[in-house]
Amino acid sequence: NDLSFEKILRVGLFAVLIGGCIPNKDKQAGHSNLRYSQDGFVIKRGVNISHWLSQSSRRGAERAAFFVKDDMDFIASIGYDHVRIPIDEEQMWSESGTKEPEAFELLHNGISWAQDLGLRVIIDLHILRSHHFNYGEKPLWTDPVAQERFYQCWRDLSDELRTYKDNLLAYELMNEPVANDPQDWNLLVEACVNVIREKEPHRAIIIGSNRWQSVHTFKDLRVPENDPNIILSFHFYTPFLITHYKASWTDIAAYEGPVHYPGLSVEEGDLRGLPEELIRNVNRHNGVYNRDTLEALMQLPILK
After folding, report:
1. In this structure, are residues 209 and 218 in contact, taking their beta carbons and an 8 Å threshold?
2. Least CB-packed of 15, 81, 192, 243 within 10 Å?
3. At what angle do helices 182-199 and 144-161 cross, to 10 degrees?
């Protein structure tokens, strides 16, 4: 058929390469290769279904055809045990807050395909009308109306999805929160977890740290206490010159020279003749990396 690993790369291999999930300290870890056991929501390796119900202008038949059952079959066939499905507020709800039936039907389809294959699912509320992780204006942090809208999204999602078993489905509160003050995110986490717990006391809830879920900001994250069904998630983009090589949305997009690992990502000689601004941008992200330095960074959230 026309399925290929290239398509999996297109729909979101970054979730596998740069993400990490760790259980709350109160929860036993160490399980692997479990399919709907009674041990809760246990995941090992997964893939992100990007640009289907998130970050896309596709609608109607084009959106429905972008990700189909054959794609989910392929994901299961190559050994993944879960998928993360990002959803955007503007796709799932009208501006008045009414649920969009077609979008929710596609979401249910995706969950059902995964369920039939023994895959677990993470529903990630990726972008809000009041918050985009790469935009300057983020009313979510200052506008009580925007915050209530965020909570209502999760009330709606819980009402829509609560019939799925707790060991099949998990909720990720929001992708890559970016607040000037980490306490703003802590307060929002506390309130939103309470909103979900009113309806679903045992659902796994995934939480990342402020500022793009960086390993460096986990020290500022306040994790809800006495809740064994919390999973902490970090995003890991280091070495940036390798993980974002030629990525069109970055300040290093124009760099097409060699990159190196282990060692210094870009050698001084590789920059000769390039525009000064590009050289500055590359050097801002440049550094010496090897397995030890990367593992040390990953320990920051794990040891929190």
Report:
1. yes
2. 243
3. 30
List, in sequence order, every residue forming a beta bridge with 47; answer none if it has no partner. Answer: 83
pLDDT grade, residue 24 (50/70/90)?
A: low
Residue pair 11/50 in contact (Cβ under 8 Å)? The answer is yes
* Lookup: tokens for 6: 């290239």
Angle at alpha carbon of residue 54, lines to 10 and 6, rounded to 5°: 5
Put residue 33 in one of left, alpha, beta given phi > 0 → left and psi -120 to 50 → alpha. Answer: left
**pTM for the complete prediction?**
0.86
Instruction: For the beta carbon of residue 296, count every other beta carbon within 10 angstroms.
Output: 10
* 183-213 CB burial, b ≥16 within 10 A, e <16: ebbbebbeebbebbbeebeebbbbbbbbbbb
Q: What is the per-residue pLDDT for 12?
A: 39
Rounded-to-integer distance, Cα 59 and Cα 52, Å: 9
**Spatial distance between the Cα atoms of 239 and 258, rounded to a whole number of angstroms:** 14
* Alpha helices in 55-178, H assignment, sequence order: 60-66, 69-77, 89-92, 101-117, 144-161
11, pLDDT greater than 50: no
Q: Which residues contact 271 (CB under 8 A, 6 or more apart)?
A: 257, 279, 282, 283
Please tell me the distance from the alpha carbon of residue 45 to that of residue 213, in angstroms, as a whole number: 18
Helix and strand numbers, DSSP H then E, in the chain: 12, 9
The answer to whether the CB of 11 falls within 8 A of the CB of 67 is yes
Cβ atoms of 83 and 121 within 8 Å: the answer is yes
- Residue pair 17/31 in contact by the 8 Å Cβ criterion: no
Assigned token pair, 195: 């909103």
Q: 38-52: per-residue pLDDT in tens?
A: 468 999 999 999 999
**How many Å is the Cα radius of gyration of the chain?**
20
- Contact (Cβ atoms closer than 8 angstroms) between residue 189 and residue 208: no
Check: CB of residue 127 under 8 Å from CB of residue 54: yes
